[in-house]
Design brief:
The complex is a heterodimer of chains A (252) and B (211). Chain A is of the alpha/beta class and 252 residues long. Chain A folds into 2 domains: 7-31 and 213-250, no CATH class; 39-208, Rossmann fold, CATH 3.40.50. Helices cover 58% and strands 11% of the residues of chain A. In chain A, helix 7 (185-191) links the parallel strand 5 and strand 6. In chain A, helix 1 (7-27) packs antiparallel against helix 9, helix 3 (69-87) packs parallel to helix 4 (102-115) and helix 5 (135-146) runs parallel beside helix 6. The longest helix of chain A is centred in the last third of the chain and has 29 residues, at 212-240. Chain B is built from 7 helices and no strands. Chain B has helices spanning 3-26, 30-67, 73-93, 98-130, 136-152, 154-159, 163-198. Chain B starts with a helix and ends in a 13-residue tail after the last helix. The chains are: A alpha/beta (252), B mainly alpha (211). Chains A and B meet through helix 1, helix 3, helix 4, strand 3 and helix 5 of A and helix 1, helix 2, helix 4 and helix 7 of B.
Chain lengths: 252, 211
């Protein structure tokens, strides 16, 4: 009944789910949350302070890639950034390239203003759908016209990463970015003040919310990483010795 | 509609849809396969409807800009005329007609290509900043980058025939190993994130519903 070639993935999946459940149960009542410091996320407060002092807006730009897990991670960060800007009566322009998430993006920002007790300050004109092809020109136009003082770039980024990061640099914005697309990380590292590398973007929601239930899934992720490292070491040794046994087991 | 219903209902839709698609990925059950395909199709239909919301958002923002005579308001007129004009042209003549293709081939495609081409200038300025030697690590990166760039172009091979081999060596064990390390971590992060969304632990995307 199980599909051919997916047995080992299924076993890994069940193991991962079990570890996640166990870790969630353990951390649910604990106050000692084992999350290391992520400088990029701590810098959001600094960036919001900067835009408040300078009286200039911030920009939150999503990547131009299709809707997948990175978008959900970016929603977490957007919510936090929106709450901070609402708290200090600052302005943030959200640039969205995908029509299907426009209602979600509007809802996240509106929800942040409601959570801060300032629903009257929510300006729907600051949550802009810019289309996937028009995003590059529109974002550069916003950076230039509005002279943004902070630029948050999170999500599924492709070649536009270097365009936005360099344009943000040109207007002197403090820049915080994050993507799991490995081919774009070097551009962010080169041009931005802080960058969340790969998996860090997925930990952002947990880091910002400090929700013990979410910490469990992060712990499971770490255990899975150790597991992957062990498998890689065993695979390297077996492959060097000419054995294909591990290939056959994982290929089932 | 109660607030808790508005909060819980989208979460349950996500949970049921996610479980069906995941179970179908692992198990060959005909009814689940049919349901899974339907769910994926619904996603496309919902996305198509959402395009209208995007158009509505653009119309609202640029109508405000025009009515309040904000800075560069005339560009808003241009945007609305272009958007609705091209939409009307497509609806009246279809997307395969000569007038529709004319604007697509002679305006949209060249402009889009220009944006892709501009990436190279931004990459150059990013490299300029990245290659400034401020630390020993930056010096190592600059050295590796110079070798990789020279190994990629013909003049490098003329200068020293071993440069392409060095470039391949740098891009092989070093770059690939580093990239794969990040990819494995990111993939596990994606699985973890998907779990949290499907199980309703991650609720940011539900916004202020219920608050």
């Amino acid at each position: 009944m199980i599909r051919s070639g997916r047995v080992s993935i299924f076993v890994f999946f069940v193991l991962f789910a079990y570890l996640g459940y166990m870790a969630m149960s353990r951390f649910k009542k604990s106050q000692d949350l084992p999350i290391r410091r992520l400088a990029g996320l701590d810098a959001i407060d600094e960036a919001v302070g900067r835009i408040t002092e300078m009286g200039r807006p911030a920009a939150f730009v999503f990547g131009n890639g299709t809707l997948e897990a990175q978008w959900f991670a970016a929603f977490d960060i957007l919510r936090y950034c929106s709450r901070e800007t609402a708290k200090y009566n600052a302005e943030m322009i959200v640039c969205n390239p995908l029509a299907e998430v426009q209602p979600v993006v509007e809802e996240v920002v509106r929800g942040a203003y409601i959570a801060e007790g300032k629903p009257q300050d929510y300006n729907p004109d600051n949550v802009r759908y810019l289309s996937d092809t028009g995003l590059r020109a529109a974002v550069l136009g916003i950076f230039g016209r509005e002279k943004v003082a902070a630029n948050f770039m999170f999500g599924n980024y492709y070649h536009e990463s270097v365009i936005f990061a360099e344009a943000g640099n040109a207007v002197g914005a403090i820049q915080i970015s994050g993507t799991a697309n490995t081919h774009q990380i070097p551009f962010f590292v080169a041009s931005c003040d802080y960058t969340l590398l790969g998996e860090e973007i997925f930990a952002a929601g947990t880091y910002l919310s400090r929700d013990p239930a979410q910490v469990g899934s992060l712990v499971a992720q770490e255990y899975a990483k150790y597991f992957a490292v062990v498998i890689m070491i065993i695979g390297t040794i077996m492959s060097t010795m000419g054995s294909k046994a591990l290939d056959q087991i994982l290929g089932r | 509609m109660s607030k808790s219903f508005r909060k819980e209902f989208p979460m349950w839709i996500g949970l049921v849809s996610g479980v069906i698609v995941i179970v179908d990925y692992f198990f060959n059950i005909s009814i689940l396969s049919t349901l899974s395909k339907e769910i994926v199709q619904w996603r496309n239909i919902v996305a198509a409807f959402a395009l209208a919301l995007g158009v509505g958002n653009l119309t609202r923002i640029h109508s405000h800009a025009i009515s309040q005579k904000k800075e560069y308001w005339f560009f808003s007129i241009l945007l609305l005329v272009t958007m609705y004009g091209y939409l009307a042209l497509g609806l009246i003549t279809t997307s395969k007609s000569a007038p529709y293709r004319f604007f697509w081939d002679n305006m949209f495609q060249p402009l889009s290509g220009t944006w892709y081409s501009m990436t190279v200038f931004y990459m150059t300025s990013a490299c300029w900043r990245a290659f400034r030697i401020r630390t020993p690590q930056a010096a190592v990166m600059l050295g590796a980058a110079v070798l990789a760039m020279l190994g990629q172009v013909g003049i490098g091979q003329i200068m020293w025939s071993q440069l392409p081999a060095i470039k391949n060596w740098l891009q092989g064990p070093f770059t690939t190993a580093g990239m794969r390390g990040i990819t494995i971590g990111a993939s596990l992060g994606m699985i973890s994130m998907s779990f949290r969304v499907i199980l309703g632990l991650e609720r940011s995307h539900l916004g202020g519903v219920g608050e």
